[in-house]
Amino acid sequence: MEGDNKREEGLALLVIMVLAVLSLASLLVAFSYYCYISNKVAKHLKSLSISKNFSSFPFPLPSLLSSNLPQLLRCCFLVKEGKNEEREMVGRGSHAVGGGEAPVVVSERGVQVFTYRQLHAATGGFVKANVVGHGSFGSVYRGVLPDGRKIAVKLMDRPGKQGEEEFKMEVELLTRLRSPYLLGLIGHCSDGGHRLLVYEFMANGGLQEHLYPNSGSCGGISKLNWETRMRIALEAAKGLEYLHEHVAPPVIHRDFKSSNILLDKDFHATVSDFGLAKLGSDKAGGHVSTRVLGTQGYVAPEYALTGHLTTKSDVYSYGVVLLELLTGRVPVDMERPPEERVLVSWALPWLTDREKVTHIMDPALEGQYSGKDAVQVAAIAAMCVQPEAEYRPLMADVVQSLVPLVKNRSTTKACNSSSFHASKSPAKPEYGNSCA
Ligand SMILES: Nc1ncnc2c1ncn2[C@@H]1O[C@H](COP(=O)(O)OP(=O)(O)OP(=O)(O)O)[C@@H](O)[C@H]1O
Ligand SMILES: [Mg+2]
């Protein structure tokens, strides 16, 4: 009896020991896995040169690691193609700001961390005279760095969760994505409560300013000619194509509109504002569900109704911009007769009618385009804005269709100011601009 008890006691001890050894082994496995993952993340951060100065990075490292670990790991594999483009853009912002200011952290990808003082100095103390625009993020100021580079500084004026999220998204995406068709981020500032984004200065501002000149005071006629409009359409399409098809997972812009297409001194276009961007689903035809944001008149119907967001939602918004370029009309204009207020509903029936497509064309363009080209662009716009998301084209298809319509694609000075001319014939009042 006593022998039996001793045997059972021995057995129990053995089981406990085996369990202890197993727990120790699993702890060891978990610890090595943790080391492996931290090592990978550290390597990735090092590759972005963020690790050089953690204290200067706008987000505290622990929260960055805990909240963004999956995203960070995904971003290790983000840029799939466009390496040549990357090389073209790297170094654009690699000069340090001098003038005895606090040292600037310059990452290998050319994104700098500024102090508030430096940007205050660069914009002349954020004086009103340097304001170039206002948006939902805050005011935009023109400025000059001590090395002479012209910059646009966006000063966040509404601290809060959403603004903070947009700021992070913009910085995270723009430091990783590089394309000649996306607006380049020169740097950012996260000094105390201040949040600022520093971009290349685009001398000709937003596309909408040129499509609807003096829209506030009525009466302006767009001087953007057909050739330039087509090139802007192509370059903007290439920006979206890059986001949708050259990075993995795809990036959905979510707020594509004419004011987010910026024009440089030669009227070359870049796509801006990724604050609202969302990383798309990896699955073919997949979607991500999200709060409905974006700008009235540009939001795809399925996204507005269900919040289901896919790259095809951007294709719809692109179609609206193409319609703006064709018609010279704003997406929603409450001053027009009811049937003409919403650009898409008004234009759609005309777009597929070869004979009547000229009825919707911007009168400022008269005599500048061939009927064949107009029909072709109208057909592309019609495909993009159709209600069935799955039948909308991919941005790569849009790019392919637009390429033959753009003359002088290879010349960087294809469109200087002298190539802009006003309509030779007087504009018909109903098409003049949004105020006509
Ligand atoms: N990099 C830049 N270079 C020159 N001008 C710029 C630049 N970025 C913005 N702007 C000007 O500032 C204006 C406001 O831009 P911002 O992106 O803040 O607002 P928005 O595009 O009009 O609206 P939203 O906030 O909804 O995107 C633009 O229309 C443009 O004229
Ligand atoms: Mg904008």
UniProtKB/TrEMBL annotation:
Binding site for ATP: 161
Record-linked InterPro entries: Kinase-like_dom_sf, Prot_kinase_dom, Protein_kinase_ATP_BS, Ser-Thr/Tyr_kinase_cat_dom, Ser/Thr_kinase_AS
Entry's Gene Ontology molecular function annotations: ATP binding; protein serine/threonine kinase activity
Organism per entry: Cocos nucifera
Family designation: Belongs to the protein kinase superfamily.
Keyword Transmembrane among record annotations: yes
CDD domains, alphabetized: STKc_IRAK (cd14066)
The protein's name in its UniProt record: Protein kinase superfamily protein
